[in-house]
Amino acid sequence: MMKRVKIVQSWRDQQQRQFNKLQQQQGQINQQMNAHQQRLSLLEDLSGQYSVASGSQASALLLKGIGRFRHQLDNLTNLQRQELALSQVELRSMNERLVKQHCQVQMGNKIIDKRLTKIQNQRDKQEQKVLDELSIIRFFHRRS
């Protein structure tokens, strides 16, 4: 019976290692998502800084250059939004995997606990049986 418990413990330990690995990956994905969010904020702030106030005098060449630059910034901002969205999807997926893996670990713990309880109950019954037999033997020795 203990052999079975050891097998389940080995499986549970493997599941725990996988869970720990997934937690590390989740942390990395979370860092990537935060980095994407920061870059997006910087790009959005930068885009707002490059505007020409109405009524100010600027050359056509300057306006054209600012227009091209803002267009490139808008493209970069859109790409960064897509990267952020992908990171969010990846993080949600990782969270789901993490929950499933945690359930596996908990299931292993429950199986081990049940089997150890069963083993202990069997030992307790066996011990009680021996004590009962000794008690009966002692009782008959006193009567004789």
From TrEMBL:
Homology family: Belongs to the FliJ family.
Topology within the bilayer: Peripheral membrane protein
GO biological process: bacterial-type flagellum organization; bacterial-type flagellum-dependent cell motility; chemotaxis; protein transport
One matching Pfam family: FliJ
Signal peptide residues on this chain, from the entry's feature table: none
Keywords of this entry: Bacterial flagellum biogenesis, Bacterial flagellum protein export, Cell membrane, Chemotaxis, Coiled coil, Membrane, Protein transport, Transport
Protein name, per record: Flagellar FliJ protein
Coiled-coil segments on the chain, per record: 12-39
Compartments in which it is found: Cell membrane
GO CC annotation terms, alphabetical: bacterial-type flagellum; plasma membrane
